[in-house]
Amino acid sequence: MESGKAIWVFGILFFLLAGIEASQLGGGLRKCGFPAVYNFGDSNSDTGGRSAALGEVPPPNGETFFGKPSGRFCDGRLIIDLIVENLGLPYLSAYLDSIGTNFRHGANFATGGSSILPGGYSPFNLDLQISQFIQFKSRTTALYKQLGDHSNRPRPRDFSKALYTFDIGQNDLAYGFQHTNEAQTRDSIPTILDEFARAVQQLYKEGARVFWVHNTGPIGCLPYNEIYYQPKPGNLDSNGCVEPQNEVAQEFNRQLKDRVSQLRAKLPHAAFTYVDVFSAKYTLISNANNQGKLLLILSSFENPLEFCCGSYYGYHIDCGKKAIVNGTIYGAPCHNPSRYISWDGIHYSQAANLLIAEVILNGSLSDPPISIRKACQNPKNA
Ligand SMILES: *[C@@H]1O[C@H](CO)[C@@H](O)[C@H](O)[C@H]1NC(C)=O
Ligand SMILES: *[C@@H]1O[C@H](CO)[C@@H](O)[C@H](O)[C@H]1NC(C)=O
Fold this sequence. Notes:
Residues 1-22 form the signal peptide. GO terms for molecular function: hydrolase activity. The protein has a single domain, classed as 3-Layer(aba) Sandwich (Rossmann fold). It is built from 11 helices and 8 strands. The protein has helices at residues 2-25, 49-54, 79-86, 126-147, 170-179, 182-187, 189-205, 223-228, 243-266, 277-289, 350-360; strands spanning 37-41, 106-108, 163-167, 210-214, 271-275, 323-325, 328-330, 366-367. The strands form 2 sheets. Strands 2-1-3-4-5-8 form a 6-stranded mixed sheet, covered by helices on one side. Strands 6-7 form a two-stranded antiparallel ribbon. A hairpin with a 2-residue loop joins β6 (323-325) and β7. It is globular. One 2-acetamido-2-deoxy-beta-D-glucopyranose (NAG) binds next to α11.
């Protein structure tokens, strides 16, 4: 009788637990929203850091969405903006920006020109961005203890529940191509990724648990590179992209994916999503080029290697500047940015970012293949 009762109790417990388990797995019912996003990167995800620290981004940047320059090298929103929109969070303020910022739901440490290794185009390399984060965390935590909660500041308990996003590495490759060559740049990849892995481990030590890692894009398809670095016949692919540069980017991505796997094994409580942004961007460019397979929405794009703002043809003028040379106006206003994949020869237009975000946020190009909203349900994070 005693043992019969025990079986009965055990049975009820079993069904209760099974029920909880099912509700966790079924339909994403397990509660796991991100209260904050902390981002590290370069101009691909800089929402105002470089502009605040090193010189304001001029108009017509921002013209499509913000109606004025917003510190972004783009006519509108970047992928990081579309990420926080998707998560129901406000746009990230740049850590380096001292005006009108709000860090309640995260902060952005990305700055235009940044690389993983020090000594590139920007002083704010990844290691420095991580030390800025550590300072940000300790000082806001101290303020919380001293003054209590404040609507512009993060809650200390949110740091371990936040999403940590990375989009960095493109400038390590660009700097390598400019100052050495493809072979040497390829050889430097393990050193670059050692530094990346170190950065992730530092964040882990600080309590970061969920990581979302973008791989690097097809750098050889940036019009700037296509014009300046390697415009030799025979090294362009069918889309007009510099193939040897894209091959180095692909090698970087293969090794990055391996590092992420190693980090998964090494950091037992962390969840990593590796996101193949390269494929999203490259597919967009090839589709726009491939008249036969045009998707409806892409049919409005110009040649993918053209860009809207600034000029590198004949006379180099950066986006936002203007010059009249021999009667020709360079840097004339940029009409119809939504018809271009590239905004200024280096950075993608908002129209392109919207299409890229559409395929990367739902997990279709991710390892593991989960959407960003469910990245916190990544099994390793249980
Ligand atoms: C402008 O004209 C001068 C003289 O004809 C020529 O040398 C120069 O290359 C031209 N510059 C550009 C940017 O076309
Ligand atoms: C993700 O979105 C793209 C573009 O809308 C779509 O083609 C793809 O099927 C979606 N994948 C998943 C897993 O939902």
